[in-house]
Structures are given as C-alpha cells and as structure tokens.
Amino acid sequence: MTGKDVPKLEGARDSIPQGTRINVTFLGNEDLRMRLDAARNVKRLGFVPVPHISARRLGSRADFEQFLAGLQADGTSDNVFLVGGDPAHPEGPYADSLSLIDTGLLQEYGVRHVGIAGYPEGHPAIDGPTLWSALDSKHTALAAQPLVGSVITQFGFDVAAVLAWVEEVRRRGIALPIRIGVPGPAGVRRLMSYAARFGVGTSASVVKKYGFSLTNLMGTAGPDRFLRDLAVAYDPARHGDLKIHFYTFGGLKATSEWAARFRKESLA
User: N or C: which end of the chain has fewer CB within 10 A?
Assistant: First the structure.
C-alpha cells in the first residue's frame, strides 16, 4: 500500500487475515507524516506494518534517523524493507540499501527484521553480476549486525525463471526466506505497463502460460496458474523457505478477496 491507501485498507480489512504483513511504500510524492500514519494504521487494523525505506530518496542521515525514530515511537519499527529507490542519483548520502544497513542505525532504532529485494529476471538499470554481488553483500551485512533478513522478489510471469533464480540463491549459501512476488488480479494493460517498467519478461509463450494473451489486452488476469505451477514445482530441499508477496496492482480489496477465494478453492 501507499501512504494514501489507508481508506482502501479499511475497506479491505475483512478479507485480509489478521497478522498479515503489509508493506508501506516510500514514494517521492509522500512525506514523513503520511508514511508514519500509514504504518500506524496498518498496526491499528491488526496487521504487521513493513515500512519501506528508499535509500536514494533520503536527503541526509538526519532524515533517515527521523523516520526510524518516528517508527520506533509508534511501535512500528520491528520490520522494514530496504530498497535503493527510483532516483537515478541519490538525494543524500545513501546510494543503495547496503549503505543503510552499514550505518548500524537500524538496530539502534528497534528494527529486528529487514527485507531486501531480489530480481529473478534482472533489473532494467543494473547488470546481473552487480545484482548478485549486492545480494551477497547485503546477506553478509545482515548476518554481521545481526539482523533477521528475508528477500522479496520483483514480480514475474515465469515460474521456471523464478525457481532457477531461487536455486542460484541457495547455491550461493543464502538461506534467507524468500517471498515470491506475485501480481494480484489486475487489468492486462496495467500488468504490461508495470512489466515494461521493471524489466519483467513478457514473451508470448510466457504470458500464455500465465493465463493471458498479448493480442488481447482488454481483460483481467490473476495469478491462479502461476501459483498452481509454483506449488507443483516447489521442492523444499532445493528451494528452501518460500512464501508469497502480493503486489496489489489491481487494488487492495480486489487482491485480498481474490486471495481468500483462491485459498478456499485450493483447500476444497
């Protein structure tokens, strides 16, 4: 959710299980008050807030500490998700999420669990070797603090690509839990727009397996096939601890209601 989405979370609360982790984005057009207020409301409604911290959007060390201090005062600092962020150039002293970990400030302000990003299909602005080096370095830095870590991946449509990436993560000795990014049900045009923005593969064969066609962009697509294929291919011995992280491109309520239906149908 974004800082503006508190009313939407209120509307979706009955279809989201209590205790669900809900990430709160760190957008450039939102301010400290909005971010803190959103995290407070996630907690008030019975969920676990996971505030994002965008390294390149922080103008100074003081800005970083002010945000952490606000979270700590509200009792919402246990879990955070660190990301480099969209700006091409840092607005302050932090170029990437590793630099935030290395400050030592996270533990000082009560952070216990840190989420970091994973990119099964790469990143449009960062080459593969750099991504792997960054993941290795963040894993090492979290262990040295020590802080509990996990990985949330960028969304994708190709189960084979995702699991191949997971196997490489495990081969590198990174045993952190991984939350596989999955887009909630959304319009196909919107999914294609996000995919283009984030460098996600959308070949005709891949999206057909996912459940839609590149020649018909008018409908809505959900991750039903993706999750079923993932469940079939999942091997705990090779892939370790995997969970799901929903990107709510189609809205909080639509995603949460879809997830509740899918779970009920799967259990049946």
Answer: C
Closest CA to 118 of 174, 74, 158, 65: 174
Question: Whole-angstrom Cα distance, residue 207 to residue 156?
Answer: 10
Count the neighbouring beta carbons within 10 Å of the beta carbon of residue 212: 21
Phi (first) and psi of residue 77, to 5 degrees: -100, 0
Measured CA angle at 122 (ends 78, 96), to 5 deg: 45
Give the contacts of 218 (CB within 8 A, at least 6 positions apart): 188, 189
Give the Cβ contact number of residue 266 at 10 Å.
Answer: 11
pLDDT digit string (tens) for 22-34?
A: 999 999 999 999 9
Burial class (CB in 10 A: 0-12, 13-18, 19+), 148: middle
Question: CA 22, CA 46: separation in Å to the nearest integer?
Answer: 10
Distance between CA atoms of residues 106 and 138, nearest Å: 14
For residues 192 and 217, the answer to whether their CB atoms sit within 8 Å is yes
Beta-carbon contacts of 62 under 8 Å, excluding residues fewer than 6 positions away, are: none
| DSSP code string of 59-98 | -SHHHHHHHHHHHHHHT--SEEEEE--S-SS-SSS--SHH
Q: How far apart are the first and last CA of the chain?
A: 30
